[in-house]
Amino acid sequence: MNESSAEARPEPSPAPGREAAPGRIVLLTTSHRVAPGLLSWPAWQALRAADTVLCADGTHPQLPYLREAGIAVTQASPTARELVDACAGGRTVVVVATGEGEPELTDGLARLAGSGRVAMPELELLPASYDLPGARLLDLVQVMDRIRAECPWSSRQTHEGLAKYGIEEAYELVEAIEAGDRVELREELGDVLLQVVFHSRIAEEDPDAPFSIDDVAGGIVAKLIRRHPHIFGDERAETPEDVRAQWLRVKADEKRRTSVTEGVPLGQPGLALAAKLASRVRTAGLEVPLPRGEGIGYELLALAVGAEADGVDPEAALRAAARVYRDAIKAGEAARAAGDAEEDEG
Fold it and tell me: Coiled coil located at which positions (predicted)?
C-alpha cells in the first residue's frame, strides 16, 4: 500500500476465528466541471460519518474544501484487500476518487467479491457532484484555449481566414441532415460548434471590441428570452403561426429596420437568396411584382419565388435533384466501364 505517512495505514484485519461486521466502502466520485466544494448532501453525510477518508491524489481539488470543513483525509492508495481489511469491525471507509476514477481498485474489489472467499463489506458508488447538461462545453472551451495558445496554425488564425470553413461546415451539416445520417449529423454539429468556439476565442484578443464565448452565449440566451414572451412573459401563442408572428414583431422592434430586405445576406446561394426575399415580402404582406427580364436568371428567380410560395425550399429541392443526377452519372460511368471491359475481353 502506498501512503504518505504511517497514519495512512488502514486498520488490520480481525484475528483468526473472529467474525467481523462487514463494514462499508463508499467510492465518492466528483466532476471537475463543477466548482470544488459543491458536493451533494448525501456526499457530505457520508464524509462526516466515515471512520476513514482516503484519497490517492494529494493534489485533488476537493481536498482543501474537505479539510476546511473538518474532514480528515489521508493520502493513500490501498489495494482492494487492504481496503476490505480497513472495514473490519463494521467501519466505514470513504474513498475520494481521482479524476480517472479508481479502475484498479474497483476491479480488485470485483475479483475479491467473485472469489467467494472474502466477507465483503457493503459497496456503494456515490456521485458527489454531477455534470449539468452542457457541461462538456466547458471542456471544449478549455481545449480551444490551449490550442489557440500552443498550436502554430491555430494561433495565427483570424475571423477572415476562418470564414470559408464556417460556410463549408454549414453545408456539410445540411448534407448530413438531408442524407439522414445520424453519425455524420453528430460529427458535423460538432464541427459547426467548433467554429463558434474558435471565433469566440479569437474575439477575446481584439484590442478594441473583445468578447468571449460567455458573451456570445449570454447574448443568444437574452435574445431567446425576449423573443419567447409566451414562455418567459405574459403573452400567449397557441399555434406555430402565432409564435412566428410574435418572433417577427419582437425582432422588428429590436432591429428598427427600414426595409424588409435588411439583414438578408446577399452572399448566400442565389436560389436561397431569392426564396428569402420572397419570404420577407410575403410575411410583410407586400404586393411586389417580379421584375421582367430575359435570361436564365429571371427564370430561376420566378421558380424560386414560386417554390417559396408553395412551401418548398428551392435550394433543398435542387440539391435533391442534383443527387439523383449524380447517381445517374455514376451509373453511366459503371455502364461504360462494363462495356469497355467486354470489348477488351472480345
Answer: none
